[in-house]
Every structure is written in C-alpha cells, then in structure tokens.
Amino acid sequence: MGRLKGLFFLLCAFSLAGTSVIAARFFHDGPGAFTVTGASLLLTLLILLPFGWRELAAAVRRLRAKDWVLLSCQALFGIFLFRMFLLYGLARTSAGEAGILTGATPAVTALLAMLLLKETMDRTALLGILSTAIGIILLQKLPVSGLESTFSMSHFTGNVLVLCAALSESLFNIFSRSAAVNAEAAQREPIHPIAQTALVSAMALALCLIPSLPEHPVSSLAAMGWQKWLALVWYGPVVTALAFICWYAGIKRCRAQTAAALSGMMPFTALLLSVAILGEHAGWQQWAGGGLVVLGIVLIGGNQRPGVKTRRAERLLDKKREAAT
C-alpha cells in the first residue's frame, strides 16, 4: 500500500512539474528570473506556513548539521539553479522543447551515479542514455537528409541552459533521496513533506533576494498583467508547494529508479500543453526527439534491480526493524 501511495504522489509531482515550463513561458518578457522565482517562493511560504507551522517547528528542533547541508543543497539545485537555468533557457527556446529536455534528468542522474557514486550500469540503462542523447540532438533542429537547417546559436544556447536545469534537477534528486535514506537508516522520523517544502523554499528565497535587486522587483511586479499574476500563482503555491509536497511524500516510499520512470510525465505534459495552450508548432523532429527522450526515461527507470550496496542496506534495515519489534 505504501508503494502505491508513493507512485501516486510521484505521478502527481511530475505532472505538475511539467506545467512549470508552461507557466515560466509567460515571464519571458516580464520581470527578471530572480524576481519571478523570489515572488513565487514568497507566495508558496504564505500558503504553507499557516498550515504547516507546527510540523515546521518540530522539524527544526530535530534537524542535525548534515540535514541542514542536504536541505541547502536541495534549495540550491532543486529550486534556485533549476529555475534560473529554465527561465533563461525559455527566453531562447520553445516551451515544448524545454519540457522534453528536462526529461533528460534520469539519464543525467544515471551518469552521475556511475561517475560520482561508482554505481554499475547495465546495457538497458546505457541504451536509455544513448536514446536520450539522440533525442536531444534531434531537438536542436539540425539539418536532416538534406533539409534546410533552422539551427541557430541562440536556440542552441537555450537548449543548453535547459539541460543545465536538468542537471540541477538530477542533483536535487540525489540529495533528497540521500536525506530520506539517512533518516531511515538512523531510524529517525522523516521530515514532514510540508515542513521540508517550506524549509527548502525559504532557503531558495534567501538566495534570490540580493540578485533580484537590480531587476527592480517591486515596480516590475506591479506592472504585470492578470495573466502573468495567474501564472505566478500557479508557479508558486501550485507548482512549488503542491508538487514538492507530493515529491517528498513519494520519494520516501519509492526508489530513485521508480521516480525516474515516472518522470516521463513531465516532458509529455510540457509538450502537450505547449501545443494546446501556447499554440507552439512541433515538427516531426521534435516529436521524434521527444519520443526518444521518453524512451530513454523508460529504459533507465524500468531497471528496477537494486545494486549490491542497496540490497545490503535493505537487509540491514530489515534486521533493525525486526529487532525493534
């Protein structure tokens, strides 16, 4: 039952995350990236604090130094850098392509696990990474079979920035899962999802304050129309608060590979909504590239066999639970 709840929460989290690309697109000619991020996080905290102040106070009393470090890394990579790269990237590329490119996160996560954590990778995962790489190349609109190229350096730069956002998201996945595993191994009660979301949002907001000053946040926000305000509300309380709460509730019940498989909802949601809401055109190269990226996600996330270290850790936790009962 717990795993089914985890799957449901992760499915909701990634579906909402896919809409973030659409919401961010409304700010390409509005306030600066730091202002948009800071304002959305402030709205998030205004919604969360009245409902979760007790959980937040209890969590702060239990946190250790290592917990604060992991939360700071989640704020830096999962919110601050992810949104900076995404917002600057969307000024140069389409929302549909940006959504698909963020779907490269599982491939980036697998590579980081192999390079940094020395984890092994089977042929299926390698094939998934290759599929993702080919899909990303197709999304650059390079000339194919003698067709006229629509490649531009600005478009390429935008896609690179979005890939940097995917890298930031991958690091966030690693840090958040590490925090959950550490709490379980120490047999400590995990941080409540609302409290964890509030702490990470507050830290990311602090990172935005000084960089937003040159963007004249008060005047730029006051000049926004109702559509941008609606997008800001969605970008904050809905995408940030609700999606992160679902993410933290799901990742403590499911392995990272399961989350990687479900992350295919993010590029699918972004591509479909970019066509339906923003009226963007997706050519055959974009659909083919998106299909290959999603295929890579399935191949990487479908590899559910835990490694040797994971199996040992699971057996150790089982023994601790038996001893406790």
- What spatial form do the alpha-carbon principal axes imply? globular
Number of helices: 14
Give, in order, the helices and strands: HHHHHHHHHHHHHH
Q: How many structural units, i.e. domains?
A: 1
Residues in helices, as a percent range: over 70%
Question: Which residue ranges are poorly predicted, with pLDDT under 50 across at least 5 consecutive positions?
Answer: 142-149, 304-318
Portion in strands: under 5%
- How would you classify the helix and strand content by structural class? mainly alpha
Strand count, sense and barrel status of the largest sheet are: none
Mean pLDDT: 76
Rg, alpha carbons? 20 Å
Features:
transmembrane helix; EamA_dom; globular; single chain; 14 helices; 78% helix; mainly alpha; 325 residues
Provide a quick synopsis of the model.
It comes from Gordoniibacillus kamchatkensis. 78% of the residues lie in helices and 0% in strands.
